[in-house]
Design a protein that fits this description.
single chain, alpha+beta
Length: about 70
């Protein structure tokens, strides 16, 4: 079983703009987000929250230092 970096292995989020569905790839597994989205940033935050429940300790706040 591969080892994962708890802070660096952020989810990769994809948004289907035609129907608003969103999915994400995390630790080599694909997941669908519930609901529909019109904003990739909202979908990303929801994916990150789900990933924290799976043991990920990263945050979307880390990179935003504007």
């Amino acid at each position: 079983m591969p080892e994962f970096n708890q802070t660096a292995d952020a989810p990769s989020v994809q948004l289907n703009i035609e129907d608003g569905t969103a999915s994400y790839l995390f630790r080599e597994q694909s997941y669908m987000l519930p609901g529909t989205y019109s904003d990739i940033d909202v979908a990303r935050r929801n994916a990150e929250e789900q990933c924290r429940g799976l043991g990920w300790s990263g945050s979307d706040c880390e990179a935003k230092t504007i």
